[in-house]
């Protein structure tokens, strides 16, 4: 470790020096949010936005594959646990947004909007909790 980093109190670990399962799970979550947002724009007639979302999704797939190939075996074994947490976060985000849109909000939202917002809330929950876990 670099002397300046030690003096500043920075600690490097396996997750800060090499590709980590936590980061990959956030990237996969971003891909899922992109895919969950696609119906909203498609149903709304926003063809340009839909096309851009497809391009973003394809770019994310390329980055995810490249990142996976750089990961260590140790980090690859941690990925299933991170993906389970991502899935639970998406479910909680979906439930929160469904409750908000269908129970508390004055105007009803379409299912595609609730799906998009729920996926976004789930990814935020996952990313924030992953960051908190890394700081401990």
From TrEMBL:
Presence of the UniProt keyword Transmembrane helix in the record: yes
Entries under InterPro entries matching the protein: Voltage-dep_anion_channel_sf
Keyword entries, A-Z: Membrane, Transmembrane, Transmembrane helix
Lineage top rank: taxon: Bacteria
Transmembrane portions of the chain: 21-40, 52-71, 83-102, 114-132
Protein name: Transmembrane protein
Native species: Chromohalobacter japonicus
């Amino acid at each position: 470790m670099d002397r300046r980093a030690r003096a500043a109190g920075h600690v490097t670990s396996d997750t800060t020096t090499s590709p980590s399962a936590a980061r990959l799970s956030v990237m996969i979550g971003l891909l899922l949010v992109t895919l969950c947002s696609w119906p909203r724009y498609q149903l709304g007639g926003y063809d340009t936005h839909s096309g851009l979302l497809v391009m973003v999704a394809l770019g994310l797939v390329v980055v995810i594959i490249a990142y996976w190939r750089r990961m260590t075996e140790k980090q690859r074994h941690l990925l299933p646990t991170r993906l389970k947490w991502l899935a639970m976060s998406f479910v909680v985000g979906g439930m929160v947004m469904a409750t908000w849109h269908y129970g508390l909000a004055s105007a009803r939202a379409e299912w595609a909007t609730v799906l998009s917002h729920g996926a976004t809330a789930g990814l935020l929950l996952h990313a924030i909790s992953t960051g908190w876990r890394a700081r401990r």
